Amino acid sequence: MADIELDGQSLTIEEAISVANGKNTAVLANSARSRMEESRNGVQQIIDSGQVVYGINTGFGAMSSVRIAGDDLEQLQTNLIKSHACGVGDLMDPEHVLLMMIFRANSLAKGVSGIRPKIVDLLLGMVNNGIAPVIPRIGSLGASGDLAPLSHMSLAILGDGQSMVRKESDWVTMSSLDALQSVGLEPTQLAAKEGLSLINGTSQMCAYLALTTLNLEKLVFAADSSAATSLEAIQGSHSPFDARIHDNRPQNGQSISAARISALLKGSEIQVSHVDCDRVQDAYCFRCAPQVHGPVIDLLTETRRILEIEINSATDNPLVFVNDGEVDVISGGNFHGQNLALASDSIAIACHELASISERRINQVLDPQWSGQIPFLAKNEGLESGYMIIQYVAAACIAELHLLANPVTTSNVPVSMGKEDHVSMGATGAFRSLQSTVLLSQVLANEFICATEALDRIRHKPGGGVADIHNWVRKYVGKYDGDTVMSKECTSLSNRLLDGSLQEIFG
After folding, report:
1. Three-state DSSP class for 326?
2. Is 291 in the same domain as 340?
3. Contacts of 356 (CB under 8 A, 6+ apart)
4. Residue 206, CB half-sphere, CA atoms under 13 Å: how many?
5. What is the domain range of residue 304?
6. Tens-digit pLDDT string for the chain (507 aa)
7. End-of-domain residue from the set 201, 219, 243
8. Domain match, 114 and 36 both
9. Which of 71, 73, 112, 387 has its CA 20 to 30 A from that of 282?
């Protein structure tokens, strides 16, 4: 286990997830500590001068014109946290909460939020000891920050609310005060601006979108792999993956997808045996796989770029800048999650498209006019249904994905008496996209199951990469031996796609 230093500038998605999973710990970098102390001193200068500045000694949102007396500034922060902690719905997964906390800590480490280092130290102490505040998922509008979820997070800093504590492989719920004290931590009172700094940011959105991105990076590789496996299962043509085709339309993702599929097919005896086959062209679900999968690779490249900027950005408001003793407190809108929301919308659509083309390949593997095999890969046609309903389940997943692909960025609801009149709904979108990756994994798993079974009934050997995939699938799903309950196997293989074990067989 190693310490990852948070400096507000260089955190990666993988580093953050390793801390959330308990594989590493996180500490505040000295450089960040110095910047934070300078920014905090700037806040104190404002307070001492009696100057009225939003977020420090005023109300919030539509009540920003109300001045708050100096004696009430700490109470103002407590009231802010408690009043905003009104989320509803299912609870966030505790590891997702820890990831959100890491992203919040790193944003504050940027050193322009006016918050004391001791608050971030406490936040990281909770993360490193596996203390995840109990947080209802629903409540953020993706603008003005993820206010409700982050307020529930901040309750724990005050010693209020409940928290889940990691106990080996399980989670135990207790009061936040007991959770803190069980690992030698103490709650603290928030000073002026600190409550606002904690809750005014895009950390919940970032957590969900980071998990989504990692899932989909695994699944687009899986989609290329399942396409190659199904192509061999129907004894289809390798020609559409010839590099010369893709070099003349040099879309990066398309070229990557075609190269992957081509590499997996290398050494195929099936292809050699069908050199003189009278099938001129395969259906689009095979022939155009790189053209459909490739844009998802390009989308992921851009999403990762956006995310790695976002998790190393100051996303609260106002920001406190100190230069040669001069303090500028500037109000802006870095809390608005439009970039994350648009990426989430695109990813949800991408998941639907990968699943849709995968289901079409399933259909071809199960259809004798394409596969040349018994319908649905049954052994006793009519008496047995074979893998008929595996396709049905894939189609049902696609119906769910279709609903999830509806954009959330078009669902604007003005709030705070119209002051906050355009919101991104990015938190809803990012969670929806995470759900979409899980459904996609199931469709791809079902494709692998069908294609692997079909390969077992072809006497020629597939390409070397496809053979490796076949052997990998067979670790989790046995050969068809008459109709049987398949739910467990389908789910198991879906989970294996999400944990990255398919990539591991290729190094």
Report:
1. strand
2. yes
3. 398, 401
4. 35
5. 209-316+330-504
6. 779 999 999 999 999 999 999 999 999 999 999 999 999 999 999 999 888 888 888 888 777 778 888 888 999 999 999 999 999 999 999 999 999 999 999 999 999 999 999 999 999 999 999 999 999 999 999 998 999 999 999 999 999 999 999 998 899 999 999 999 999 999 999 999 999 999 999 999 999 999 999 999 999 999 999 999 999 999 999 999 999 999 999 999 999 999 999 999 999 999 886 666 666 689 999 999 999 999 999 999 999 999 999 999 999 999 999 998 899 999 999 999 999 999 999 999 999 999 999 999 999 999 999 888 999 999 998 899 999 999 999 999 999 999 999 999 998 898 888 888 899 999 999 999 999 999 999 999 999 999 999 999 999 999 999 999 999 999 999 999 999 999 999 999 999 999 999 999 998
7. 201
8. yes
9. 387
Q: How many CA atoms lie within 13 A of 288 on its CB side?
A: 11
102 within domain boundaries: yes
DSSP string, 205-253: HHHHHHHHHHHHHHHHHHHHHHHHHHHHHTT--SGGG-HHHHHTS--HH
Angle, CA 286 vertex, CA 285 and CA 289 arms, to 5°: 80
Separation between Cα atoms, residue 497 and residue 439, nearest integer Å: 11
Q: Does the reported pTM lie above 0.90?
A: yes
Active site residue 54: yes
Choice among 54, 284, 392, 480 that is catalytic: 54
Same domain, 380 and 431: yes
Q: Residue 322 domain-assigned? A: no
Q: Which two tokens stand for residue 308?
A: 């790695």
